[in-house]
Structure of NADH-quinone oxidoreductase subunit N:
Amino acid sequence: MSTFGILFALAHSLPETILALGVLILILIGALRPRAELLITELAVGILGLALLSLFSGRSNAVLFGGAFIDDGFGRFAKGLCYAGSIVTLLIAHNFLVREKINKFEFPVLVLLSTLGMSMLISADGLIALYLGLELMSLALYVVAAFHRDDAKASEAGLKYFVLGALSSGMLLYGASLLYGFAGTVSFAGIASAVSGTPSLGVIFGLVFLLAGLAFKISAVPFHMWTPDVYQGAPTPVTAFFASAPKVAAFAVVVRVIISVFPGVAPQSQGIIIFLSILSMVLGSFAAIGQQNIKRLMAYSSIGHVGFALVGLAAHNETGVAGVLFYLSVYVVMVLGTFAAILSMRIDGKAVENISDLSGLARTDGSMAFYLSMLMFSLAGVPPLAGFFAKFYVFDAAVQAHLYGLAVIGFLTSVVAAYYYLRVVKIIYFDEPVAAFDKAPATLRVVLAAAGLFVLLLFAYPAPFVAATAAAAKTLF
């Protein structure tokens, strides 16, 4: 490769280069300088911030490394969400890790490694690159899920996630091998050309197994079985991480596969997405009703929101993809703000997780009660908050694609889901107060306030956000 070619490749893979070099530097610092956890966390945030800034260099779209890596507007937008999610995770995690006496330098390193895997996954333009990115992301997640080694619940969560993750990887590999066998290539463009027209049974089986493996990562029903236990058992900052950045990365690659790899078999792929969407919306809406643990409630909420986002993808058009990106953006903000509130739930230095512990919060901490209530209203899709517009855009895309039944089911399940979000608000404002929470660290309060204000005020000027998602979606078509 010429010098120009190397510089060209480095320019288009600059975020990944920054993350990879950052991981090596942090490992060296951690090994050579004991008790440097805070420094390494700060450096990790800086590295992620630098990678985030590198996305805005104004470069054109390009395909690199023999067609294995693609740098386009869609990928840059999704990476930006992932990097932002990772940054906020590190910011809200530090105090928790210190209090639980698990503040090890490996945590920010693992978050960085997982983010590197997400970045590679989002830009994958072939089956091999997709699998490598997915496994790099997942292997770090298996470890952070069980990062609290002395906690039996965390160890159980890590083991469950690892075993079921290995199963999903096997399904994905089997689907990839079928697609390679019938298409004769691993590149997405080659597969798209080979499977156009009337698909063979082998291609359909390959598509099903590939999407089954990816559906596990986004916790879509019926591949959701790990989500409630892992969300509840893992350390709370890890749960916040799972619910934000990795979900965006996995969803982005699902969108890329459906739109770029299988445009010639749209009816078949659309049927699978509709099936996953309906099951996820229904289970996420009804199974959360009886939950008493707020982290478990957020797990079922996550499953339901995956179903709503899939409504936009089922439309299989540019409007639908833009709606999915808008939905994911708003969802990341809502979930990170909510988990900042959950991390603030401490009484006499001990973390509490029951929804009943929020009783009368409005009388003991009015600002936290207000911002958390705004996030609950937004998750429920109450206008004019950001969550309402997120659902409106995906439902509108479904209606434009004449998927009226899917839009109606989405609306009805959204109404059902509103019950358990509004129940939290009722407990906060109308139940008798229990013991007041300890004063939360400033970082948690800032993240909670920023998320609450975002969902409350987005309606005032949503145009730049909508334009950014539309421009990112356009690069896939």
